[in-house]
Specification:
By secondary structure, the chain is α+β, with helices and mostly antiparallel strands. The protein is built from eleven helices and 14 strands. A hairpin with a 4-residue loop joins strand 13 and strand 14. The longest helix has 14 residues, at 162-175. The radius of gyration is 19 Å and the shape is globular. 55% of the residues are buried.
Amino acid sequence: MTIPIHGTCDPRFAAVKAAFENNFSEHDDLGASVAITLDGEFVVDLWGGHLDEERTQPWQEDTLVNVWSSTKTMAAMSLLLLADRGEVDLHAPASKYWPEFAQNGKKAVEVRHFLSHNAGLSGMDKKVDGDALYDWEWMTTALAKQEPWWEPGTQSGYHALTQGHLIGEIVRRVTGQTIGNFFRQEIAEPTGADFHIGADEALDTRIGNLVPPKSGPAPDPDSIAGRTFTNPGVDATEPRKRKWRAAEIPAANGQGNARSIVRAQTAMANGGQAFGKTIMSEAGTKRIFEKQSEGTDLVLGIPVTFGMGYGLNSASTPISPNSNTAFWGGYGGSSVIIDQDARLCFSYVMNKMESGLLGDPRGFGLAAAMYMSMA
């Protein structure tokens, strides 16, 4: 069955449209969107497929879905914006802004360690039961009291759900706003990005449900990876709950699509400029590439190089032919690429999840087609 593809695609990027169509025919994609800006202008904005497995409800132009850890790029951008304004020193102890955080051997943990998953707080000791994950004060109080699981600053361990609360509490202490509000006012609204960290009930008519992936092998429950993914533990159907959507979980519960991610992140690829607005200085966007750690991540179990808030292009994770390229992805397949050399911003968002945490052949194929189009 041929899936109708909607939207616009510059003829130069016809290979991306072909790869997008291929995802439905060869990779059994259900509903998805892909978007790209070049020099701050959209060259690809496509969507297609369905919201339900029965294939009765079409993916619409304004459909939103939970993008899991692609949300982390929004949290990171928010903190980088405050750093660019001189309101946050990324090399200062986190306790400068959040005094309670200095407990239990964390006095020397720096703000930048939150951005690079180097804080030693990838999971939680205190059991996250019931609605505790949705309770900002409960989560941040527990993290402030917790002892790190490894020496902070020495290596990364993916902070799957906790990173957003760590970054978000710095934002809250400095601005007096929740990170969801700060992101909306300072980034989403100026760029026209239909992306939400904490989604109002009125958006529910546009939010599609995710189709959970087949479960893969579970890590050793006593390992750092096992402890990270089991506490807080989140089922892939959790985003269907109103409580999840309403909460601010800046590491994982952003509601958006490829277009809205690209609208928000284009400034990071385009010298701080996006859609007629200056979001931050060019120097502020380049801070992404201040390398913080490299090597095998304690949670992901693969080599990752982290800059400030994003993964960096490297021999072990070759995302792009261009050196100054950063990326991240979300559980199930969503992905984001920031290429400052080519001034490209890319995102792929879908509703049918695969088991990977950092992408899969659908997004990789689209990115490869994008670079082929630029050759």
